[in-house]
Queue: 4 jobs
Job 1
Amino acid sequence: MEEKKKKETEKQPDIKALVEKYVAEAVSGLKESFGKDFEARIAAEREDAAKMAQMSSEERAKAEIEKSRKDFETERAQYVSERAEFEAAKELTAQNLPVTFARFVADGDNDKMLENISIFKAEFLKAIEAGLSERLKGTLPRVSKENEPSADPFLSGLGI
């Protein structure tokens, strides 16, 4: 009994070291990717600042307006996408379908979204039915080989 405990305590430092190694690798990979993204963003900002410094006040104003318009369009597109996903989730809930598929059927156009949901529902129900029929497959029940059923003792006790 004590030997087992001894072996387990010997294994624990190995497991801890292994976990620490994996965590350290994951953290270093994330730091590296974040560092690259951050440096790329800094370089882009520097380029933009250098371009802005060389522009006249009118060109700078036009560039700032264009940048704000692009930012607005991306935010608007994200809002429309989130709103469509929310509406799709509501409709899926109303039709007793899994909400996790809302992202796949969402569309900015409500009619198109309803069409996507109806197509999804038909395919989803087909897949469920196919899965159930596959699971329910089995052997047929055995049929008795006797021609006449044997006399039931209960019925014979009643005189039938």
Job 2
Amino acid sequence: MEKLNAISRKNSLANALTPQQIVEELDKYIIGQLEAKRSVAIALRNRVRRQMLAENMQDEVSPKNIIMIGSTGVGKTEIARRLALLVDAPFIKVEASKYTEIGYTGRDVESMIRDLTETAISRVKSERTDTVEEKALEAVEERLLDYIFPMPCSLKRESRVENNTPNEPEEVNSNTTPQLPFDLEPHVETEVAEGPGKKYERYLKMRQRFRDWLREGRLENRPVEINVKHQNMPFVEILSPGGTDEIDIYFKDMFNNIFPDQTKKRRVPVSEARTILMQEEAEKLIDMDAVINEAIKRVENSGIVFLDEIDKIAGRESQRGPDVSREGVQRDILPIVEGSTVTTKYGAVRTHHILFIAAGAFHVSSPSDLIPELQGRFPIRVELKSLNKKDFKRILTEPKNALVKQYTALLKTEGLDAEITNDAIDEIAALAFQVNESVEDIGARRLYTIMEKLFEDLFFRAPDLGRDSIIIDAEYVRSELSEIVKDQDLSRYIL
């Protein structure tokens, strides 16, 4: 058995992405910053390696948390986000500046783990929904047919008489009888001779006809009245000096037990009813206990928390004013990063092996200004370089989601083929670099504002241009952005 487990672990390691492959995937979306990509790739691979170790050694290997140092817009968030997407890991981005020491207004630091758990629950639930989609669709189809073409009351009564079941009060609903394009009832002379079995057979035949129409999409716009789960939650506001995060964990569950789910009638088209009923039927087929167990397991072993603006809490308590809680926030974050157990409404979540990636500009502070205990929990530090003119040009054209591709695709929807020449791209990159140098360096985000200003007039006039193509060259770029170049107060036009 132990030999089989060793083979399984070896195969899992072989199937995982190598650090070089991770960097290659990140290169498809992020230009430059090779050092940062190598660091996150190694940290990610080490997580896989840890899971391949013997169980008694796994807990001894701590995650290699990272601090990214660099100005805004150089790719810190994008690297972490793409890394999580690459391995389908639970991921959350939080700002350290929104957390405050207990006793001050702000969020409890443990809420980041609760939010991460919620993200994992949603993802696992979505995956399980895909696996039961076929069965759920069958159940939805039957429920829609019950709403569109319900069984006649006479057949229900005859069925109860045959089964010796007592009559139950029936809801009177004038909208249950559909407007049919044909005569469903038999002729008067044959109605007397027709027995219950014949009536039921005719009902099934007509139900099958409605089923065929439903599958062909002929009933999509037909309104139906469906029963939807509804719960009236009373509004109660609770004030607590410790914040409302912990109260919220149990508050909704408490009222769920006191006020059980009720149903209300809604009249919606078949297309909308299918979506509503699909969600209800999928929830019936999904084992939520298994979903929760799987989600917590993913959070504990694969979760990634991107802690942005950590430089905003790098300070000492000797400072006064609104910065007084900076060191307190660091001490509150420390046990989460160090490894603790956080209570969520789904159960306890251990943070010992969650990967934390912190980031900050550190213009007026440095990582050494963090408390020593927190510094020790981020052993890897990598500095991201500011972007130059060459980087801007590559960002405009090389990534899969390059801005040039995005803007030309948007114009294509209006039937306008836009060709952006190389000299135009050079001009845009040069202008973005110039504005960053003159006003404030916001990195690649400057390209978004430049491009939006460049295409503003074209987006406005595109539906009425009456032409099929347009060429955007350097001259066009200079004419559209000439005022920006002339005006010294560039922030008046772009950020």
Job 3
Amino acid sequence: MTNRLSAFLRLSLPFLLSIGFSFPAAAQVTIFSPFNLAAAVDQGVRKTADIPYADGQRKKLDVYQPEKLHGPAPVVMFIYGGGWRAGDRFEYEFAGRALAANGFVAVIADYRIFPEARYPEFLEDNAQAIKWIEDNIAGYGGDRNRFFVAGHSAGAYNAVMLALDRSFLREYGVTMPIRAIAGISGPYNFYPFEYGEVRDAFGEAPNPEGTQPINLVTAEAPPMLLASGTNDPIVRVENSKAFAEKLKAQGVWVTEKYYDGFGHMEPVIAMGSLWRWRMPVLADIVDFFSRFGAFPSGVPRPAFTPEPPQSEQDPMTALIRQMDTILAPISVARRDE
């Protein structure tokens, strides 16, 4: 971390926290803002913003491209979380830039959230975004035949559901296959719906058991990377472990990565340049997608990892721990037994 960036964070962190928790949409300043500062994100990336993929205020996406493309690049759609009731694509610029800096054409799409949308509408929006990718990504240097999906938290749920229940993609005419999926801190088995946020988003589903990825696993599922912090208080690590066992029982390729001592938000934040020294989640995603054809000629560039700060008590640690304290649980360990 540079001295200039470190000094800025020390001065701005209290301000960002106070505004971010109160007025994220209006001020465009949120608890994610420090991770998206120009000095804190990967360089060598071109961003095209606010592209409509369908009609609707929240049906827009951003595309991140490597500035130097040597032929068509693999494509990854990153789906953010937020408990199906929060989140905006601009907050995850650090993730889009990280993936593009490592050779992908990355897409981050907004989708409708509660109270505007409930299950399955947010999945339908993601499917529409994938249809846009299939039809248009070649114009941004992407190869639709090398298409991958990654997601965090509720976004990981969305990602695996689109692969396990292909009816959503068929409804919008998507024909390109998903080569592999990376699910970070994802909930895959959380019925009965005990928590208010989950009941709001799923409580009206006519077949609630059918909303659970763990109940939809077949041998046709794509390879999956399941990653989680071992101290996640929002989606317990047992959630990923139980889902992995179900996938393995059907002969599906699964790679499990568990980051010791970390919580719910830390793995996704560690995708960005500012906190990448904490854990190798970005390298794990790139390696996994490479195994399944992302880069037939070899990964074009390694993930840049900055030096850790001189003090373990860096301001980002306090901010990320604060994120976990304001989130509501999605699942508990005993649901996975």
Job 4
Amino acid sequence: MSLTLVQKLKQFERQIVFLRWGSSGEYGKIKYVGYDFVEFEVLDPENMEYTETILINPQIILEMVIGGYDISRIIAEYSSKISTQE
């Protein structure tokens, strides 16, 4: 059984990832995955705030990074910001 990209992206809803599509690439959170679009909240790594929400056609997504040093660093910084706001 092979997974389609949409099925795989669905597994990572509400998680912080690096997503590359077309000529753009951003860190952010996958908010929603549908068969015709992906709702993606762009996270600014400088201030750890969501700057915009964009809708992406899943057919133009080129790459998704779900782990590694950069993602771990972004998640740690974002988590520490949430902790200090409470």
